[in-house]
């Protein structure tokens, strides 16, 4: 697997049984998705030697920017604690009154977001985008391009924190599909000066797909601002140009994956001295020990030491387990905090079901006879497999039997991955099979159905569910408050045990589809989910 810092040229845009195999390393390794082939593996080893390798660098050295311990964020050291909320009475307007049609943002009563602020700043929730003192050009983009009418709950609470001097750091958690991307994109667009032709804002993402998606949102929202963006992701092999032969980055906003961003900063082609705002999307994965922690901390340390303007750090995700949360609060120890209790994170808009099947072949029959039968009536479907091979085999089996579907996973070339994802986003394909490559942050409003062909498990502990990944997976349906359904296919005692742990963890009982053979039972489930 090749590191995403492997030779690649970013894209510049103006305004511009299977489940037990080794899991897809796409989102569990500090490296970005591989191009495939032994040369990439060899290059990874060379990169590790050049960088010193995570094993060669003591973690204590990397964590120096996270000065102090958890004691630094003890309640006694907070100068001011304030709970922010939006009156639930204000949240009872109809969905169509809050959003112009691209997506239905969350109702304010959907979740109980607890806010803790530090320092003397007092924040008032924004009930209108006009409350945020945004430029006319930004407001025009919000209303005419994004077609939003009012801020969602997470936006109403977090945007005043992001946009109010002295621009304190923020660790923010909210439901999938609640409008988190708008929060940090609007924050970046608001902080940069379009007349300065150099990087002033940076957003770091775990995958190329998420980086591309975030850039698309930024370009759409900032259409009238004159702000340009730079996409720092591994280049297509056909378009490779050495970074040394490319001009320095002059765009105001940089969005990309950590390895490629490091490559550009190391080559002195990407200046960080004017970076005012640094965003980590899917921050729990970016700061996890088995994720991108080393790269993330290096980039953060470089920016904080070189920035002449002072850099605001924003950490956004739908999930933060206890260990990552504690570490995040050490990294931004004097920042504001927004968190949701884990029991409240399960998506009420997405109806979850468990389906017991006698074996793996029966799971495939369920997809053929039930999912394809009803899925065409309810919108698009994403099927999650745990490994690349599982995704590949499922795709081959379905395609061979005449079922139209596509599959994307980390072993594919960058060009093919982009093509498959674009076709799905354009609505040209209806069923997409994938690994956890697309579990996080992948927005497609027409996805109403999610199938867990394999339940997500921790890669080092296969008997333990990956609760965060489970939540991210089912969150691909029911985006922006729409209704959705998720079917968990199981065929072993191990699957049953995993599902019981998931139910206990979220304190949420998941109903069972009584008979895996029964079309009537599946039809009833989809009707109960509001999809038929």
TrEMBL record:
Compositional bias segments (type: Basic and acidic residues): 87-101
UniProt-listed SMART domains: DEXDc, HELICc
SUPFAM superfamilies, sorted: P-loop containing nucleoside triphosphate hydrolases
PANTHER family: ATP-DEPENDENT RNA HELICASE DBP3
Ranges of compositional bias, category Polar residues: 1-11
Motif (Q motif): 127-156
Taxonomic lineage: Eukaryota, Viridiplantae, Streptophyta, Embryophyta, Tracheophyta
Keyword Cytoplasm: no
One GO MF term: RNA helicase activity
Domain annotation Helicase C-terminal: ranges: 366-521
Keyword Acyltransferase: no
Full protein name: RNA helicase
Keywords per UniProt: ATP-binding, Helicase, Hydrolase, Nucleotide-binding, RNA-binding
Region (Disordered): 1-42, 82-113
Domain Helicase ATP-binding: 161-338
Gene3D superfamilies, per database record: P-loop containing nucleotide triphosphate hydrolases
Domain DEAD-box RNA helicase Q: 127-156
InterPro entries cross-referenced by the UniProt entry: DEAD/DEAH_box_helicase_dom, Helicase_ATP-bd, Helicase_C-like, P-loop_NTPase, RNA_helicase_DEAD_Q_motif
One Pfam family hit: Helicase_C
EC number: 3.6.4.13
């Amino acid at each position: 697997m090749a590191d995403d810092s492997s030779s690649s040229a970013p894209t510049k845009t103006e305004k511009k049984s299977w489940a037990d195999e080794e899991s897809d390393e796409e989102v569990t390794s500090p490296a970005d998705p591989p191009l495939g082939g032994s040369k990439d593996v060899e290059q990874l080893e060379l990169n590790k030697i050049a960088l010193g390798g995570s094993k060669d660098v003591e973690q204590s050295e990397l964590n120096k920017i996270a000065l102090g311990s958890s004691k630094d964020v003890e309640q006694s050291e907070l100068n001011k604690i304030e709970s922010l909320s939006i009156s639930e009475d204000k949240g009872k307007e109809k969905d169509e009154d809050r959003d112009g049609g691209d997506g239905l943002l969350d109702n304010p009563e959907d979740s109980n977001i607890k806010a803790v602020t530090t320092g003397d700043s007092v924040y008032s929730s924004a009930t209108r985008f006009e409350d945020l003192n945004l430029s006319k050009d930004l407001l025009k983009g919000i209303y005419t391009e994004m077609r939003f009418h009012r801020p969602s709950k997470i936006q109403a609470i977090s945007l005043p924190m992001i946009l109010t001097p002295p621009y304190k750091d923020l660790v923010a958690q909210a439901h999938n599909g609640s409008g988190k991307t708008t929060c940090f994109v609007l924050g970046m667009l608001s902080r940069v000066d379009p007349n300065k032709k150099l990087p002033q804002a940076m957003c770091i993402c775990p995958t190329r797909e998420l980086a591309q998606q975030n850039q698309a949102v930024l370009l759409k929202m900032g259409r009238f601002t004159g702000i340009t963006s730079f996409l720092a992701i591994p280049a297509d092999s056909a378009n490779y140009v050495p970074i040394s032969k490319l001009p320095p980055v002059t765009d105001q906003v940089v969005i990309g994956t950590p390895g490629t961003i490091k490559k550009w900063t190391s080559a002195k082609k990407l200046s960080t001295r004017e970076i005012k705002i640094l965003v980590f999307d899917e921050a729990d994965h970016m700061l996890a020990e088995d994720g991108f922690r080393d790269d993330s901390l290096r980039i953060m340390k470089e920016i904080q030491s070189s920035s002449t303007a002072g850099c605001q750090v924003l950490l956004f995700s739908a999930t933060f387990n206890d260990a990552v949360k504690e570490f995040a609060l050490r990294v931004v120890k004097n920042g504001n905090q927004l968190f949701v209790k884990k029991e409240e994170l399960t998506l009420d808009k997405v109806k979850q079901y468990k389906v017991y099947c006698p074996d793996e072949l029966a799971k495939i029959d369920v997809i053929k006879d039930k999912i394809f039968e009803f899925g065409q009536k309810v919108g698009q479907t994403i099927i999650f497999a745990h490994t690349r091979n599982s995704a590949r085999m499922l795709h081959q089996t379905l395609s061979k039997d005449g079922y139209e579907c596509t599959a994307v996973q980390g072993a594919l070339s960058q060009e093919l991955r982009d093509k498959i994802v674009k076709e799905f986003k354009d609505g040209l394909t209806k069923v997409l099979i994938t690994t956890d490559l697309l579990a996080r942050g992948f927005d497609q409003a027409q996805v109403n159905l999610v199938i867990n062909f394999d339940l997500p498990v921790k890669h080092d502990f296969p008997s333990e569910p990956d609760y965060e990944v489970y939540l991210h997976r089912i969150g691909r349906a029911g985006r922006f408050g729409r209704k959705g359904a998720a079917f968990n296919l199981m065929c072993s005692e191990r699957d049953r045990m995993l599902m019981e742990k998931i139910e206990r963890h979220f304190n949420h009982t998941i109903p069972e589809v009584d008979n895996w053979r029964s079309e009537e039972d599946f039809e009833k489930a989809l009707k109960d989910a509001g999809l038929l």
